[in-house]
Design a protein that fits this description.
four-stranded antiparallel β-sheet; 10 strands; alpha+beta; about 290 residues
């Protein structure tokens, strides 16, 4: 799922490519995409794109006449910039938005179609999409601590809870916790003050570093390789590889269809966390 760094790159690219331009035609190919019916999608046609914003992992387009399009890409939704009038792929294409200089295509791989588009009239309608989490790149230490300790959760669940922190998911929570040297199953209210401060620093530095990396990769183009698995990552998706910090093999915890990666040497004092231990600790506390 595109997380904060990827969404930031999408916002910047959308601003470069279609900011200030008019949607000539909106084509929706998938009935599962649209989650609202009033206003209809054709009302976006002929309206200029005024700007973009992020709400958690959602991407909001603001159009003329206080019309808003809210995209949630979920796990496999992706934007693609193509030549004007391009037809979306038959199996993966959700929608296409035509501009005078090109077409923005929305695709989703896989059989489970979870990507969504809500269209609203009026700014007030956006409130329902705001999960309330603090912005990890903007929040000060006091508000970070308050969000973190609001509930006694595992660190993995706390970081990925959109009601607590905005835009962090499975991938970057692994990287943050590795950088902070903290176990994913450590309970939030057992952290010392210095560990909370260390976690905030790791959160900010990890996200800023990845935004900068992705900006350098994309340049002035459009993001084409949006993925949660990157070779430069320290632990996420690196099960069995050597930890870049200590050389120990990266471990994983699997629960149902979810997985977290960590380094026992850097994060748990050498203790390997068993899947059954995670199941007992988390139960319903795994990141959704």
């Amino acid at each position: 799922m595109p997380e904060l760094p990827d969404v930031v790159l999408y916002l910047e690219a959308l601003e470069r490519f279609v900011g200030g331009r008019t949607i000539e035609r909106a084509r929706v190919m998938s009935v599962s995409l649209l989650r609202t019916f009033d206003p209809p999608v054709h009302e976006t046609e002929g309206r200029r794109v005024l700007g973009f914003r992020r709400m958690g992992k959602r991407i909001v387009w603001e159009l003329e006449d206080e019309l808003f399009m809210v995209f949630h890409l979920m796990i496999a939704g992706r934007f693609r910039w193509r030549k004007r009038g391009s037809t979306p792929p038959r199996k993966t294409g959700h929608a296409a938005f035509d501009f005078d200089h090109g077409t923005l295509v929305l695709t989703e791989q896989g059989s489970k179609k979870r990507t969504s588009l809500h269209i609203h009239r009026g700014r007030k309608e956006l409130v329902g999409h705001d999960r309330g989490g603090v912005e990890p790149l903007e929040v000060d230490l006091a508000r970070f601590r308050e969000a973190l300790l609001r509930e006694n959760r595992t660190l993995k669940r706390a970081l990925t809870d959109p009601r607590l922190f905005s835009g962090i998911g499975n991938a970057y929570s692994d990287e943050i916790l590795h950088r902070a040297g903290l176990s994913p199953v450590r309970l939030t209210r057992r952290l010392t003050d210095s560990e909370v401060e260390r976690l905030r620093h790791a959160t900010r530095s990890s996200l800023v570093e990845w935004v900068d990396r992705l900006r350098a990769e994309v340049g002035e183009g459009f993001p084409e390789k949006v993925t949660a698995f990157r070779p430069e990552m320290a632990v996420h998706g690196k099960f069995g590889h050597s930890c870049p910090a200590c050389g120990e093999p990266v471990r994983r915890i699997v629960y149902a269809s979810n997985e977290t990666n960590y380094c026992a040497g850097c994060q748990t004092g050498g203790k390997v966390l068993a899947d059954r231990a995670l199941s007992r600790l988390l139960k319903d506390d795994w990141p959704r």
